[in-house]
Design brief:
By secondary structure, the chain is of the alpha/beta class. It has 19 helices and 8 strands. Strands 1, 2, 3, 4, 5, 6, 7 and 8 form an 8-stranded mixed β-sheet that branches.
Amino acid sequence: MKSPENKPPVVCGIIAEYDPFHLGHARQFEQIRQSLISDYIVCVISCAFGQRGDAHLFSTHARAQMAVEAGCDLVLGLPYTFGTAPAERFAQGGVETLSRLGAVTHLCFGVEESALDLFHQLSDVSADQRAFKAAMAEGLSYAEAKAIALSKSAGLTINRLNLPNLNLALAYRKAVKQLKSKLIVTPFPREGSYHATTTQTLPSASFVRHALVHGNWSAVQKNVPQSSYQIIKEHWSRGNYCLNDTLDTALFHRLLIMDTEQVKNLPEVSEGLENRLQRCLMQATSRKELVSLMKTKRYPYTRLNRILTHALLGVKKEDCLKQVPYVRLLGISKRSEELFRLIKNSNSDLPFVSQASKCDHPQYALEKQAEGLWLLGARQPLKHIYTQEITKEKEGAT
């Protein structure tokens, strides 16, 4: 749908992963078009590795293709150190990217249906710092301590805040405020659980991945758009997907040759965690077992999983820049020409990278390493780092 004449275009931004793009994502597109009469949809996605530290099942370009075929007008890739990061940094990178495009008017995201009122209720609530420090002193993780502090300020029970979409939504809104962004924060009710692996009204990406790995193609077909299903079938038949455990040997080799100071300088490593990692490494035989041995109240699965991926890539704390240095141009629709004109006219200062061979930014070397590592896990030729083209909407697609 188009905005009424003489009204400025409505350009909606989404921060996502689409691994893979399923009917829940398609429902969000539908909500955006109906509620906001959106002219364009822009999606910012994590690239080879996800926010939780896992290698994505499908390649960066396959996921961009799914989004474009489902109706997205522009798909951009978030640099690795923002895409594989704690919720607040992930949110900051996505919000900054959409803001610096200049033409995006709305930031759209899903919140658990039962938590929409709570999201608005917490709009101007700051976390109780004394409660936060006390929770950290008890050995809880940063996320848990933050939830306890926020619940105390708002007079809520902690279990009401234990919702992944709500927490990410709060991180988005915080980033909008901190960056003084003009994006209009627009939450939509989300049906179903973020990481559920069982059938629900609308699927989760975890459910679809679980169905794929277990060969339940009927469940996959029922829970993704037809365009996504065709892309999934094509890539699966060619073996073009990456299972996380295929990188275990490379990970253990990398950890074995790293010294204590190198481990200490990995992003998110603090408080002597480097010593715990090296001790547990001597007992574990797989990544899954290593994380299980290392996990404590203070160090949850996602943080440890990201640290291991940082180790695989040799990422250092100083690699985590404060500002997004560029975005990758991954996919465009047939209508994107006018959208690019809007971005150009808004004097956007955000550099676009469209070809790996033509970017000399120091951070992009890390991007190529991440893509190369994903290709190794998928047993695909490394030449694909340089041969991937921008995904364009197919003729006849809607």
